[in-house]
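Hi support team,

I submitted a single chain yesterday and got back a structure, but I'm not sure I'm reading the token output correctly. Could someone confirm the output below corresponds to the sequence I sent? I've pasted both exactly as they appear in my results page.

Thanks,
R.
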Amino acid sequence: MEDNNYEISKKSGDLLNSMYDDFYNLFAPSPTELDQARKQAFENFKASAEKLDFNKLAELYREEQESTEKAKEDAKGGGSNGNNDPEDDNEDAERIAKEKDLLNFDERIKNSALTEDSKIVLKKMIEYAEKYHNREVSKYIPFNMKIYSDNNNTLYDIVRIIGDAFSTYSYLKNKKSVERSFHIVEENAHISDLYNESNSIVIMRDADGILNKTEAEQSKFLTVWKNSILDYSSKNEKGILTIYTDQSKQKIEDSLMLDPTLKNKIFDFELFTERPSNQEVYQQLVNKFNSDNYMIEPSFNVKLLDYVTNTYSKTTLSSSEFVDAVHEKIIFGAKEKKLSEADVPEYDTNKSIDEIFKELNELVGLKEVKQVLRDLVSLCEFKKKAGQDFKLKDTNLHMVFTGNPGTGKTTVARLVAGILYNLGYIKQNKLVEVSAKDLIGQYVGQTAPKTNSVVNKALGGVLFIDEAYSLASRPGNNASFNEECVATLIQAMENYRDNLVVIFAGYTKEMEGFLKSNSGIISRVGYQIEFKDYTVDELIEIFRSMFTKAGFVVTKQAIEKAKEIILKYKDTEGFGNARFVRTLYEKTIIQHAANTKDSNDPELLKKIQSKDISDDNIASL
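Hi R., thanks for writing in. Yes, this is the structure output for that exact sequence:
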């Protein structure tokens, strides 16, 4: 028994020592005072322990252990005698239901379009409502808030979460919401009538509706709004939650500046939403066309995604307005219940020079190319600023681009057209793309007119001649045709030097031979730029960036699958570099659409997986 008493004593000592540790770690102001406090406290404990009846303590300890075991059994099987208290059961069921509700709200918030910071704010609001319901806190906070959103569906989704959560915890009397635009507010009752016993959430929208009114109307309606909110709160235990919403934060702030009470005392909270991604907008459009029972060709999906990617970020329309506008434009132009890439509208490619260089900098690799273009712009801008103060030679802007297929020559040529247009060196932002067959005739006397026709189309812009080495003179019956074409181009480069820029492009080795045999061209070319092959890592980055720009998420396994395919083809003859990657991207989009045709899960729709990627018939696109 003495050994048993010793064990109980030791355990009790350890237990109380731990308790003192916890307490004084929390409240001792310094390590020195902590040590002194613990030492004194433990000495007091030891003195008291000498007076303890350890037999009695051991008996109490065993009773506590038995009680704990019994509680565990009751929790598992409903108690040994089955006589549970119904009231306790009801409380447990209610507690479990509330916990499930909270988890459900967390999941809905997670899937909402709120920013990450705003998701945290909304979760804290709901947690506070639960604590208020459980009487853990006593102060009722109205949670009047500003929500910045350009999408009605997004806004209503957030309002439903708030209504469901707050009514579940009886923080609001019900989940009924009502909304009104300031554009249609013409008398006091249009605001005050919203604050009544049947409503729990009032949504006021469109800050322009206030900002565009006269000063007298602004003051009157904002005062009515303020008083309606405060009067209802003062007369009712649970107020009405007011939401002020607009897509512009600045407009909301400008309107609230007109009434300091609204700004500083009523609207204490704000939630921000994320604008739907390119992929989400694209998916909304696809769903609309599917619901209209249109037959959709795979090529339509690819071009539609390109259209959204290049236009949505620039529009001033809300996401829902953009979707409706694009949907109507395509439906109006469609000739039958079948949509092909021809039904997707073209988009304006004009960009500022800052936008062009932003796009250039976003291109993977091409370090030397980017530097050459920066130097070119610096020179052109310097000449403009210098004016007649310096005798500088005219800048020769004709160029030669050399490199393998898919190394970015055509893409950079389009950017060059935009740069030169912005600098005023060409009159139109246009790039006319041709190859040898578009310039050379099939019989005597046809080549010069054919070449001149192409030149005339390109005047005011940039003429891009791909595979220009095909213009080299070769032994045979048509050798003179090639020579005639080159001679015509040289003459045009000279005659239209202020109204035309010509870019010759092609494989490095072949272009070297072409230039050596045509001294008239090389003497008129100001820039020769080499486009090197992309590395495997750069090609993977291009592949990933195509999907990221379109709003997709690519899994690690999908990236590995793409890398395997790229490695398989990388060293084959005629490998297309970024052109190959573009083909793989388009095939993946088509396969992903097929794999997800029966799904409405937004997470799945925007996730590119390894099963979406294949090199089957990769040359067919």
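A quick pointer for reading it: Residues 2-77 form one domain. Let us know if anything else looks off.

Best,
Support desk
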